Amino acid sequence: MYAFDYRRPSTLNEADLALKAMPGAKLLAGGQTLIPTLKQRLNRLPGLIDLGAITGLDGISRKDGTLVVGAMATHYAVANSAEVKTAIPQLANLAENIGDPQVRNRGTIGGSLANNDPAADYPAAALALGASFKTNKRSLTAEQFFKGLFETALEENEILTEIHFPVAKRFGYAKFANPASRYALVGVAVAETAGGVRVTVTGAGADGVFRVPAMESALAKSFAANSVSGIAVDTKMLGSDMHAAADYRAHLIGVLAARAVTLAG
Description:
Layout: E1 5-7, H1 12-21, E2 26-28, H2 34-39, E3 47-50, E4 60-63, E5 66-70, H3 75-80, H4 82-87, H5 89-96, H6 101-106, H7 109-115, H8 122-129, E6 132-135, E7 139-141, H9 142-145, E8 146-148, E9 151-152, E10 160-166, E11 170-177, E12 184-193, E13 196-202, E14 210-211, H10 213-221, H11 246-264
Parallel strand pairs: 1-3, 2-3
Antiparallel strand pairs: 4-5, 5-10, 6-7, 6-10, 8-9, 11-12, 12-13, 13-14
């Protein structure tokens, strides 16, 4: 690990000032991706700004039909929150199946979303539920937020503070996990909200999380597992790697979409 400056602000304003004072510095949330890359000298930074001492960034509450989750809430907190289990039960289940206990107790929802790993679970849920992202400067829709592999709309001096999930009529998420990392080889989220039906896929897209309009149209007519049967996703949209080829991922999308519909009830 290369030497770097370390700061632990106690307020958002202090964190903002620290970012401006150290161009190129990174925010530290759970550190589940950032710390390993630094330890392996795959990244070199002028400084880290630890958000762990800022109070109020890890809250979970329900307001006017919306589940509000603080960016510093851990996966464990999301999985075990009574508010989450009541409002969006399958979101709690999603969090419960991220990584292992060590990862769930240290990793945060905001860190995961800001990193936007193409195999992460939360992006599928956020896009399917039509979540909005609050920062210290503005609000972004899920469509605005996700830009591609490991890329979001967050600007260099912007801090993600909250994620607002509309409470859906139905929501389900199913994934086929890599047995070692527990990342999704393919994960499919299905939601029916006031805005309609959405089907989103993580772990498979060549450009990150994406929607499947054909499945959305079919489920809007009949919300049943057999409605997505036979709907294929173009393999040109999908990635291939040492873990799974594009055509295998395409097959998994159909299987997991049906499971997600069943879980959504």
